[in-house]
Specification:
The protein has 207 residues and is of the alpha/beta class. The protein has one domain: 3-Layer(aba) Sandwich (Rossmann fold), CATH 3.40.50. The chain contains 7 helices and 10 strands. A hairpin with a 6-residue loop joins strand 9 and strand 10 (196-199). Helix 1 packs across helix 2 (41-53). The N and C termini lie far apart (38 Å). Bound molecules: S-adenosylmethionine.
Length: 207
């Protein structure tokens, strides 16, 4: 079982949303890649934070591609159901349970409401394949995953994220993850006190 929980690194995610929402204005079908999304707690948290900040129409056009290396189908099933035991929802900020979850008929379980569930699509993907799942992403979020990889692999994964991002797209990781210095031609820091980066334009990138 992957260790994670709803609203983990809430401050990091709030900062991401602060910068992402204005950047999404004018994009018709913005896509987000949450890499290492485990059983959905993180992509659903991100979707809830976006729903809090975006108009209904704009929010309904967002798609979060949640990926994880898990291939037994278990993560896919849990994410598609959006159903979690009450204990897992103990740390939700006030009001979020009532607004974004509903009893699902199974004792002690709550389900993420359809408005949020419909924005998150899971697929199995191994980051160490170094093959991006697509291109044109407005945001790639990869938290508490890269630290498990050797430095060389970490660099290749970050290069893959760069390819996956749209021009000016954002990359976010956990507070303690430093970007290797050799990748500074690819990403510029967005905030001084957090690990949020913007893809540099191609002509300014080293090959
Ligand atoms: C500690 S969890 C992090 C979950 C969430 N991102 C968070 O910050 O709470 C690490 C996740 O990375 C996934 N992971 C590990 N190696 C991976 C790989 N090679 N490709 C894709 N996901 C991987 C694990 O399966 C696990 O779900």
């Amino acid at each position: 079982m992957a260790f994670t929980f709803f609203f983990r690194d809430q401050q990091v995610l709030e900062r991401v949303v602060d910068h992402l929402v204005p950047a999404l204005a004018g994009r018709r079908h913005p896509r987000i890649w949450d890499a290492g999304a485990a059983m959905g707690q993180e992509p659903y948290t991100l979707a809830i934070l976006l729903a809090e900040r975006m108009g209904r129409f704009a929010f309904n056009n967002v798609r979060i591609d949640a990926t994880d290396v898990e291939s037994t189908g278990q993560f896919a099933r849990i994410i598609a159901s959006g159903s979690y035991p009450r204990e897992e929802l103990a740390r939700l900020p006030e009001g979020i349970l009532e607004k974004y979850f509903e009893p699902n008929g199974e004792a002690g379980h709550f389900r993420v409401i359809e408005k949020i569930r419909s924005r998150v699509v899971f697929q199995s993907h191994d980051l160490l394949s170094f093959r991006e799942i697509g291109q044109g992403y407005a945001l790639v979020l990869c938290k508490n995953v890269l630290l498990h990889f050797p430095p060389r692999d970490r660099i290749e994964v970050l290069r893959m994220f760069h390819r996956a991002l749209a021009s000016g797209g954002l990359f976010a990781t956990e507070h303690t993850q430093e970007l290797p210095a050799e990748l500074s031609p690819l990403f510029e820091r967005v905030i001084p006190d957090g690990q949020l980066f913007r893809k540099r334009e191609a002509e300014r990138c080293a090959s």
